[in-house]
């Protein structure tokens, strides 16, 4: 079994993948807060997967973990995962003290990009664009992650597209994330509610002027991210994932309309057919956890090659 865990700010999604590449088990459990609790969550998820899919610890070939924050995949270390209360965590070393199997860790968006590519079964280049609390992308070329020279390829959330826009958490103004990042948009909305982005879409349809502007901004920011990814990395497809995609066709239709409107005055942009090159992951997709499993399996294979 190859295990993959997507450790999120509130929940951890985990899958067990058998020798045929089939997901043999899937569980979701709450994620703990703080470094020690994150390790406990990972170990508890492994135990729950074993119970769900009925296999022994000895059957585990590898474990891959996708996690937010800055990830040093080589060292197995996570830094500045603020949504988890983690400043620095030697995740691989801590986990292997309890379960001595090959572990690997990767940034959650990059892992999800690999998983989305595997689920699509398309060898062409693609970008996975995560619209969640923040905005980031992972780029996959020939089935492999493209990291860039310093590992930040795909960090489109902090590209400024409006120098007069709202201040971003990174200190710039008008970043893509200030338009279509769930956290930034919810703060701009400023009204109570468990699902602020859904509330914005609903209020916009009722004619609320502020909601209309924020909803249009979400489409504008997402469309800008698509343009950036295609024009800079020349990916064939941009696949959307993350919490905002639970809006389904309401979100997709807005983004398509924005891309078409922006292309009206440019023959060059029309030639790129960006409106035809976007997809949304289905609700409940296991892409992130599956991608983490692929990361763990690849790390194990590389280690086997190095060690003969």
UniProtKB/TrEMBL annotation:
Signal peptide range: none
The protein's name is NagC family transcriptional regulator
Q: Which domain of life is it from?
A: Bacteria
Which Pfam family, just one, is annotated for this protein? Answer: ROK
Which family is this sequence assigned to?
Answer: Belongs to the ROK (NagC/XylR) family.
- Write down the species: Microbacterium keratanolyticum
